[in-house]
Amino acid sequence: MGLEVLLMNENPMPVLQNFLISSYAYSYVMKRQMTRREALRTMGLTIGAAALGFDGFTQINDNVFEYGLNLDEVFKPIKNPLNRPITAITCGAGNRGNTYGGYAEVFHDQVKIIGVAEPIPIRNERYAKTHHIPEENRFKTWEDVFTRPKFADAIIITMPDNLHYEPCLKALELGYDVLLEKPMAQTAQQCRDILAATRKTGRIVAVCHVLRYAPYFIKMKQLIGEGAIGELVSIQHMEPIQHIHMSHSYVRGNWHDSKQTTPIILAKSCHDLDILRWMIGKPSKSIAAMGDLKWFRKENAPEGSTDRCMNGCSVEATCPYSAMKIYYRERGWLYVFDLPDEKDKQGEAILEYLRTTNYGRCVYRMENDQPDHYITSIQFEDQITASFSMEAFTAYDGRRTRVMGSMGDMVGDMTELTIADFRTGKTITLVPKGEDVANSKNSGHGGGDWLLMRDFVTAVANQDPKYLTSTIDQSIESHLMGFAAEESRLTNKVVEIK
Ligand SMILES: NC(=O)c1ccc[n+]([C@@H]2O[C@H](COP(=O)([O-])OP(=O)(O)OC[C@H]3O[C@@H](n4cnc5c(N)ncnc54)[C@H](O)[C@@H]3O)[C@@H](O)[C@H]2O)c1
Q: What phi and psi values does residue 194 have, to the nearest 5 degrees?
């Protein structure tokens, strides 16, 4: 018995069995100001047989149901014929290198990081210490790694966008399997070259489209596939970047210049194009895009503002983008700084970064060119359409998705997924079970970051790319959609996706 019971039955309570409460359900109900006792009383019971890969549904409040993800069914069970952890070398020990490194720390029986390439000494040092990497396997730059014959199973490429293409080709040439951060490369042709090299060498390349691994999106795709809303007709998807995040990453930060990195539709949103393609399950045919950089421009600099927020800016106290407020007073977004371990020394270190790096500069006086709003309309096969918006100016983050079908619709925000059935007029809300997300609490993207690593490790151990949800063959299409969107935005034409 699955979702249809919840939607079709007048009163689902009589068919509920097997009492179950999870911490997430508990806190969810508590958020609605109920006591634990009330929660237990109000709570439902797990519905009988689960849909494939899911632990069935547990009613937690009125029309709200919780679902669990059975990892070994949704993904393939972990199987390692090597009888040892796979070994990997990380190129780029920054934010993402540490995300995947974090998996290796916890699941050291599955993967061991035995080498690192990283030019920033303190990052190299900390990474080597965490993973007990011997001196001879510590390198300044990725090129150094490839002066040696192959000495690990896999290479993890977590360097800036302009350092994906060459290192990936080199790694494949030397016989490594590769975990490749998105975007794969800076042009459509480079993406095709990587695909060709993967086929030629027969190696495994996993592209880090981590949203495919988030229980929430897995559930959404499964429901569409099961016909929960009839035939899929169209999808509206939105990525609210959140205004401070925009200023941090795409105005001041690493991705402020599209030519040095990639256009924001790839840098930020190849994930989203990928999720649309994945949920629809059919090829895209054409795309039209519009968007611009409207706000973070020199002409919008307030009177009295200065080159750096700390240099006597007269509007600093009220500016939402004040670097002093974001990084120094509120201590947010600090992962980009290599701060001393001693807490009392961190304040001065932050101020030094604000004096000397782009993170201390006025958001209206940067050399940024990434659009702060971007809309696309996509035609898929089978008369299905999708629209996607990427918006900087929101107070919130977390993708929002509306899926329209012939017999119902779904509305979700990566936490709750509300499904309406036109046949019965019923509406229910699904929330992912706490443990699925909590199991990977250091893993971002709704748990997807570490679940991707789980798949990659199993694929490498078994030398079989079928273990991956995000293979290179599948990932390339969303990149081609992104490059076509940018062409459309710049030429003001509808562009065919080939
Ligand atoms: N999958 C996702 O959801 C996701 C999220 C954020 C970023 N990314 C992508 O991941 C990549 C890394 O992003 P990040 O946020 O970790 O950036 P980061 O700046 O934190 O880390 C990159 C690291 O690479 C190092 N590096 C630079 N040149 C190098 C070289 N020649 N050899 C070895 N290392 C070198 C840098 O010093 C830095 O420490 C980017 O391509 C980014 O677009 C993906």
A: -65, -40
Helix (H) or strand (E) holding 96: helix 95-106
Burial class (CB in 10 A: 0-12, 13-18, 19+), 72: exposed
Question: What's the order of all strands across the beta sheet hosting 138-139?
Answer: 138-139, 111-117, 86-91, 154-157, 177-180, 205-207
pTM: 0.87
The pLDDT value given to residue 36: 32
Collapsed DSSP state (helix, strand, coil) of residue 372: coil
Say if strands 54-61 and 64-69 run parallel, antiparallel, or are unpaired: antiparallel
Longest Cα separation, the chain: 68
Mean pLDDT of 211-234: 91
Paired tokens of 310: 């700390």
Q: How many CA atoms lie within 13 A of 195 on its CB side?
A: 15
Atom of ligand 1 at shortest distance to CA of 445?
3
Ligand 1 center to 317 CA (angstroms):
32
Please indicate whether residue 206, judged by its CB atom, sits closer than 6 Å to ligand 1. no
User: Residue 429 forms beta bridges with which residues?
Assistant: 64, 418
Q: How far apart are the C-alpha atoms of 3 and 8, rounded to whole Å?
A: 9
Contact 486, 265 (CB under 8 A): yes
Q: How far apart, in whole angstroms, are the C-alpha atoms of residue 459 and residue 473?
A: 15
